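Because discrete structure vocabularies remain unfamiliar, we first show an illustrative case, written as a sequence plus integers encoding its fold.
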Amino acid sequence: LGSPAGEAVRERFQQFASSKKEQVGTGMPLRGLGISVSLGDISTRLVALLSQLIALRPGKMWLPSKEDSASGSYLLMLVSGQASVVVGDQDQFVMGLPAGTVFEEDAVTEHGGRVKAVSVCEMYRIRRSEFNIVVEQDKAAKQWIWSLKLKEQEIADRIHFRLTNTQGLLQCKEEHALDKAIQAQAAKKRKKIRYANKAKL
């Protein structure tokens, strides 16, 4: 590790270790969700240790993973900033995501959605399986787990409803555009037939 490449690796590792230490020390992401969690609880610190930090600048996208991915399902937690769920080639707005939002990523990807940062966003993600193990092993987690599950279910229901409706509207627009193209083609064909009939006369 004495080479320039080795020094770069060591520096990145130190930055990662420092970031993780700060993450555990502040209890993020659970302490950023507006639920009653204690910084001293082992579950708060373990979730912080196992969570991956995602920092997004305005306009940047995050493509959540699907439930059937190799790593399984993930919980996504937005602790600061504003984001939105978008869908389609034109990034059609579906709904806003305020700070304190938590949801399973598959709730978005199930309907082809993506997460787009509106402002600078600090998000974290953790494997659902690891999160469940941590919660089950810490009795103190019973004091806040139901508040988190309620927040998660509420946002999941909203995402499903809004994404389904938005996709329906986009599909109608596509069908309408296709209908107009078909009608225009039919009109051209009728015009050619009229010209052909006049030529015969």
Helices lie at 4-26, 42-50, 106-109, 128-137, 145-200. The longest helix spans residues 145-200.
